[in-house]
Write a structure and sequence with these properties.
- The chain has ten helices and seven strands.
- Helix 7 links the parallel strand 5 and strand 6.
- By secondary structure, it is an alpha/beta fold.
- The protein has a single domain, classed as Alpha-Beta Barrel (TIM Barrel), CATH 3.20.20.
- The longest helix has 17 residues.
Length: 266
């Protein structure tokens, strides 16, 4: 029997995102979420997680958007002129060229991990905003830091998607990194339908082969004013929410006879 982990990214981004993720969990669709500890609604997300203990919670490591948890003066190589993370393209350039200093990356990863635990979460796994943890430098640091907090599982990138974004992520994930690898689900999906949102068909295709664990990534949210101010990916989040709560999506899961799980089951 296949196991299906439906992970909602960006828990803690805004109250509307939190509301959507919890609604999907309570409807039996989402099984897991990753919390953005520097999000404006991170504390609310932790309180909601405590009220919904069956929802697996991991760390959504964020080095591309918003402000760091470390004092900006202590991690300058990770930040733009305004003291905020500089966006995914600039973050990737800094990682690849070595401009992002290892000790500053380590300090911020540790700070975000400590913050998640400090919010009362026992993290099930780690992934990252904009899939930055596929980069070998970050994978090396994550392997060093996260097991100290009992985090031994992470999002993998073994997937069939062939979009330019998916191919770039897969290529990065194949580059060598130091340290013992964290455990991952057998397959990953969801990146290929961002913006298109034929989510039921994507899950149906992935579950056609028996006997493996699939992580399906999603980004449900209510496209309110706060979300519009927090990210450019706003209206599609509400479309994702409607897809996840649709009868079609539920029917695909029922027909597959899949076991719904979180990363805790790996």
């Amino acid at each position: 029997m296949n196991r299906l982990i439906v992970n909602a990214d960006d828990f803690g981004l805004t109250p509307g995102v939190n509301k959507a993720i919890v609604e999907c969990y309570q409807r039996g669709v989402v099984t897991s979420a990753t919390l953005m500890v520097n999000g404006r609604a991170a504390v609310e997300a932790a309180l909601l997680a405590a009220d919904n203990p069956g929802l697996g919670i991991g760390l959504h490591l964020n080095l591309t958007s918003g402000t760091p948890l470390m004092p900006p003066g202590s991690v300058p190589s990770l930040l733009g002129w305004d003291g905020a993370f500089p966006g995914v393209k600039q973050a990737l350039w800094r990682l690849t060229t070595g401009r992002a200093k290892a000790h500053e990356l380590e300090a911020e990863i540790k700070a975000q991990t400590d913050r998640l635990v400090g919010l009362g979460i026992r993290p099930t796994h780690i992934d990252s905003h904009h899939h930055l943890h596929a980069h070998p430098r970050l994978r090396t640091l994550i392997r060093k830091i996260c097991p100290r907090h009992g985090i031994t599982k992470t999002r993998g990138f073994h997937m069939s998607a062939r979009s330019p974004k998916a191919m770039a992520v897969k290529m990065a994930a194949k580059l060598p990194a130091a340290g013992e690898a964290l455990k991952t689900p057998d397959r990953f999906s969801g990146i290929e339908v961002m913006g298109d949102r034929d989510m039921a068909a994507a899950v149906r295709r992935e579950l056609a082969k028996p006997g493996y664990t699939l992580e399906f990534m999603c980004h449900p949210g209510y496209a309110d004013e706060q979300l519009s101010g927090a990210t450019s990916y706003n209206q599609p989040r509400q479309a994702e929410l409607m897809r996840l709560l649709s009868a079609e999506f539920a029917a695909v899961i029922d027909a597959a006879g899949v076991q719904m799980a979180s990363f805790a089951a790996l």
